[in-house]
Specification:
mainly alpha; 60% helix; elongated; 6 helices
Length: 141
């Protein structure tokens, strides 16, 4: 239990905020500050270099507008990378909500789940997170 609490505290300290990323985009977008914050150093440097070029503005402006949509995904990827590091997994391996192989166990920080919740999660994993549609045709008659 102590180890999980420690992992949670470290994650809370390293967690990135989508709101902070948007503020960085709003005030320092041309310098790629939001990308540096999300751990994307290469593209942050590219945005900074484009800022200092007049022709680069033709590429930079649409790119920054597209970043408005991409920021939440970048921050979530960075947070998942932090979780994977805390769990001792290889860096650079992207985690997904549903494992790619059925035998692969789900990744989570919490160690103890009650049996009822564990059974529900296992059922969701088996069905691919799809629920059967209820027949509500009698409601509209």
């Amino acid at each position: 239990m102590d180890e999980n609490l420690h992992k949670q505290m470290v994650f809370d300290a390293k967690r990135k905020s989508i709101g902070v990323a948007y503020l960085l985009w709003f005030f320092l977008a041309g310098f790629g500050a939001h990308r540096f914050y999300a751990g994307k150093k290469g593209t942050g440097i590219a945005q900074m270099l484009l800022l200092f070029s007049i022709i680069g503005w033709l590429v930079l402006v649409p790119w920054l507008l597209i970043d408005l949509v991409l920021i939440p995904g970048m921050i979530n990827d960075k947070n998942m990378e932090t979780i994977n590091e805390l769990n001792g997994e290889a860096r650079g391996v992207r985690s997904s909500v549903r494992p790619t192989e059925p035998e692969q166990p789900a990744r989570r920080i919490e160690a103890d789940l009650d049996p009822k919740r564990e059974a529900m999660l296992e059922e969701l994993r088996k069905t691919g997170y799809k629920r059967e549609r209820r027949d509500n045709s009698h409601v509209y008659r």
